[in-house]
Amino acid sequence: MTLTLTLLCAIALDYWQGEPRNAYHPLVGFGRWAIWLESVCRNPHYAPKLQKALGMLAWLCAVSPCLLVLLYLNFPPAVQSIFSIAILYFCIGARSLQQHAYAVYSALTSSDLALARQQVGHIVSRQTADMTLDDVRRASVESILENGADAVFAPLFWFVLLGPFGALLYRFANTLDAMWGYKNPRYLHFGWATARFDDLLNWIPARLTALSYAAIGNSRLAIRAWQNQAHLLESPNAGPVMTAGAGALNLQLGGPAIYHGQLKQKPWFGGEQTPTDADIRLATRLIYQTLGLWLLLIGIGDSLA
């Protein structure tokens, strides 16, 4: 089975089935493994350097067993193709992202702000209880753009580069970053290595995603926002993705938000227009248009190989 056909099958399966139920998702088991490792390795009373070293050891222990098994599996070609499709299906989340976004959109169009706050709380880490309509819209579009890179395009990039091993390595690293990568007293030192590994694995895919957003949307605004505003955002990878995406849609995103009870003065970035309900759907459309562009380019490369 060709690379392009494998990708098409996995993406079609994702669109048809969506995210697997939690009880059957392999990442649920991986999460339990990571929680156990944290209980063994993390000790806030240790010196910062020792906490960092133990965090790196925990990261290696978390990903190594599964990846070593994957490296030594030797299936017949037909079984290998099915296995590759299944791995990529578990590693991407385009349909899940769309479903979460549409849940927010549906609540907003029904004039149910309380439900919209609840739904957007499933895809953002900021506090949502006191969000205004504009806050909900901005947070939704920001999350769609950023998670498009994390949950769709980065796994695809590593799958194309390294096969199932690459996709799983990225997904495990990204999951650990979501668990340990916070800059708070609990994880500041223990999660340091986890955050660095995630930054490293996302560096190229994030910039390819930003470039793709710019190619599909308002290219001039996207490139200008990327060049002038990406450095204002804390994340070295989310910065290019979200500024380029916001510029591509000509939407002004960012602004003050509450995290863990503290008001954070995030910068404004992107275009000029205030997001509307419809822009949530347009943002998800941008993800699928970008996905189509990637599949087209990969298919051309695959045919020439």
TrEMBL record:
Bilayer topology term: Multi-pass membrane protein
Keyword annotations of the record: Cell membrane, Cobalamin biosynthesis, Membrane, Transmembrane, Transmembrane helix
GO biological process, one term: cobalamin biosynthetic process
GO CC aspect terms: plasma membrane
Location relative to the cell: Cell membrane
Parts of the chain that traverse the membrane: 53-73, 152-173
The keyword Kinase is assigned to this record: no
Molecular functions (GO terms): ABC-type vitamin B12 transporter activity; threonine-phosphate decarboxylase activity
UniProt key word DNA repair: no
Pathway membership: Cofactor biosynthesis; adenosylcobalamin biosynthesis
UniProt-listed InterPro entries: Cobalamin_biosynth_CobD/CbiB
Main subcellular location of this protein, as a coarse class: membrane
Summary of the function given for this chain in its UniProt record: Converts cobyric acid to cobinamide by the addition of aminopropanol on the F carboxylic group.
PANTHER family membership: COBALAMIN BIOSYNTHESIS PROTEIN CBIB (PTHR34308)
Family from the record: Belongs to the CobD/CbiB family.
Protein name: Cobalamin biosynthesis protein CobD
